[in-house]
Structure formats: structure tokens, C-alpha cells
Design brief:
With 89 residues, the chain is mostly helical. The chain has helices at 3-11, 22-88. It has one domain (21-88).
Length: 89
């Protein structure tokens, strides 16, 4: 390939893009915004689900802690009754 052919190819102009109409621009922007809202909504739904699961897990753990406290309180009450009876005897 010669220099003239290279220069000739470089000189060729590509057809320019036609400007987008206002409606096309608006439609494109609207699509972009709607997509963004959908993604945000999906993320918030996931966060809500994770919070519900975390709340459920914390309630279960708290129930276990309350059970342990109740058992300890029962043992303390029994010990105090025992001590009271032994002191009074």
C-alpha cells in the first residue's frame, strides 16, 4: 500500500451522526432514571429482608438469654430458701 492510498484513506470523512431529537433524549433519560429507581428499590427490598432476618435471629438469641436468666433466678431463689431454712434451724 502506497503513501497516496494511506493519505486518501485518512482524508475520507465518516458520515456525521444525526443529532438526537428532544424526544429521543428525553426517552433515553427517562429509561435511565427508571432503571436507577428499579435498582434502588431492589436494594432497599434486600436490606429490608436482611433486617427482618437479623431481627428474627436477635429475638431467638434474646429468648435463650431470658431462659438462662430465669433458670439462674430459680437457682438463686432455691439457694436463698435453703440458706433461710438452714439459718432458722
Amino acid at each position: 500500500m502506497g503513501i497516496r492510498q494511506l493519505v486518501g484513506q485518512m482524508a475520507k470523512k465518516k458520515p456525521t451522526k444525526t443529532a438526537r431529537t428532544i424526544n429521543q433524549r428525553f426517552t433515553s433519560l427517562e429509561r435511565l432514571v427508571r432503571t436507577g429507581f428499579r435498582q434502588t428499590e431492589r436494594r432497599f427490598n434486600l436490606v429490608g429482608l436482611e433486617i427482618r432476618e437479623l431481627r428474627k435471629e436477635m429475638n431467638e438469641k434474646w429468648a435463650v438469654v431470658e431462659d438462662r436468666i430465669d433458670r439462674l433466678a430459680t437457682h438463686v431463689d432455691q439457694f436463698m430458701s435453703f440458706m433461710k431454712r438452714s439459718i432458722l434451724s
